[in-house]
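Ticket #4471: structure output looks truncated?

Reporter: J.K.
Steps to reproduce: submitted the chain below (494 residues) through the standard prediction queue, then opened the result file.
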Amino acid sequence: MRLLASSRSCGQKRPGKTLVLFVLLAPILLGMTGLVLDAGLMMAAQRQAQNAADAAALAAAFDKFRGNSDSTALATANTFLTNNGLSGITLTLNAGATNALNIPPQDPGSTGSPYAGVANYVEVVVTKPVTTLFIQALGINSSQQVTARAVAGYEPVGAGEGVFVLDPTARPGLQVNSNNTRLVVNGDITVNSQGGGYDQFGVLISNATSAVKNGTSLTTPAPIVASTLNVVGGVDSVDNVRAYDAAFSGNGYYYDTSNPDRPLIARVPIAPDPLTNSNYTLPTPTTSSTGTAVVNTDYGSVSVGNNETVTLNPGIYRQITITGGTVTFNPGIYVLSPSGTTPNIFNITGGTVTGNGVMFYNTGSDYTATTGAPDSSDGSATPNAPNTTKFGAFQINGGTVSFVPLTDSNSPFNGFLFYQRRWNTTTAAISGNSNSLNLQGTLYAKWARFQVSGQGTYQAQFLVGSMTIDGGATVTINAAGKNIGKANLVFLVE
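Returned output as attached by the reporter:
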């Protein structure tokens, strides 16, 4: 059989349009790919520079927070740049807009920073060179750079200090004893103790005695409740610290039991004593103090017992003992200066005691009312009083007691209820219950242990060397007192 037709070829010839289009579009496609890759390279460099600038600014701010020099802060900032991958870049002090550590911030980019020129803040500006891979094909210089800026500084924490434990050497700095004892603070707790324990991530800092010690296995209700707990060292149990929430005060816990957050910040730097530092030092009360002054009248030793009614006036007392009766303290400063051996210079165990507008200054036997010597020389140094100096303890262990702090806007002691000479390390102790004890204002004892026990609520602020909570009950502190009692902490703000 004959075929009528046959195929002329295996396929038809193609015009080559696809190849032409590819050749025409290849530079554009390669350019777009290069832009994407180089943009990613620039973004990665920017992020690295910003991370390094943030770390350097925080490190420099920590140095200034500790009172170190600008040159020390500069060296620290440069070390942190290197540790964060920016080797070969060196910051210069107050160099402005290029690779600079500016103290205070200069705002070289004119961003309108609210921290420009503000003391207690530092600014880091970093410029990092970047070599691109493809962008030069479009006629753009392959050598580019990214700039990062960061501002950090120290400022007061927000909620106010309810408890500020000042002594870095205390082990523990804050202790809550027994399963039935709790500390509830509507405000912040700051603990300078360098003891061991765990940080907020459950990482063991050391096996040394904890800076904050619960002394209990109890986790519900939590032994420590606060807005925040800032501690230089660590805690013995992270789960025993919970976040204060006023909305849950009625449940007896003072926190939301379903909230997993823990308000703990461990490994913080030592916070300076807000009442004894280079910027401000609370003076020693004297007869020439601004506003309310010491009355230089020596009342000797006073003892009040059952069925007695006594009114006391401001002045110098060698001992005050109240076991019963009714006692009224008139407004003013009460100086407690022992003579001889006086273990308890101020001791209340009974009676009804009131004082509105008062401050108790617990000093030593060698106090001079006219000059404030030798107390005025204590400064921030650790206690080193002569062996001849006698000190007495301040104790409230019973009775119905109500003390409201000194009220005098012209006085540096405005808002203070209790002020113990810095070198007086005798333990101060207060106990009672919510129906019998009302203490308000700021209580300050720089190197002394303060022991609080009983079912009490205090509209107060404790700035003490160390603190122990005892008595098998709940101690509630609603942070109140002088704003200067707030602790400074370091923050990255820009």
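Triage note (M.O.): checked the attachment and the full token line is present. The chain has two domains: 17-156, 240-486.
Status: closed, working as intended.
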